[in-house]
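WARN no homologs supplied; continuing
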Amino acid sequence: MTDGITWLAAPRSIAFGGYSVVMAHGLTPEELVGRLTETLHGPAHTAVPVGDLTGAELLALLVDYEDIGLRYGRSGAWSYAVAYGGWMGEFGGLPPLSRGGVDICHLEFEEENGKPVPPQFAYVRDEVVLSAFNLHLDRSWGYDGVVGEPGAAARVQAGLTAAGLPDEAADRRDVHRTALGVVERHFGLSLPRDEIVTGTLPAVLLEPA
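OK structure emitted
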């Protein structure tokens, strides 16, 4: 039995502030960290190894609000990297993570953002968005169904519909969890909860080059 990804819907499932997890099929964990570092906005950064750490230990090394760290590992065929610190809105520059035929899944939730910002999911392959949507499915932030490559997006939308979503009367956290379950089953995704939440993983600090 695997951990899946629905556990991300729990309050502060990884750390205060929410979660940002990138999964990659076709890259080693170290290659994923390297590509993520390249996409950090602003001046060039480098990933500085700080050993195997728990999430709390990595957070203790982040002095300023804008400091960012990553912990990373592998789950089955997927590499993953988890962001800590001031990651909100800081990634997404060029070159694309999915270049060269790589599959990328991005799961993100700015949980403490007062606007509020809904959790987001995106699946990109070789720079083509296959499916992306707001995991609250509540028409906030421009949500109007699953977007992406028509065939792929339609299949994910069908899975959401079969799960009874959208459901505007349901609690947002329940919708979040159910939507993650649809994504988990459709794409076969799983993240090791104990390793991420309480265990140690290789960690880096992203520092100006």
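Residues 6-208 form one domain.
OK
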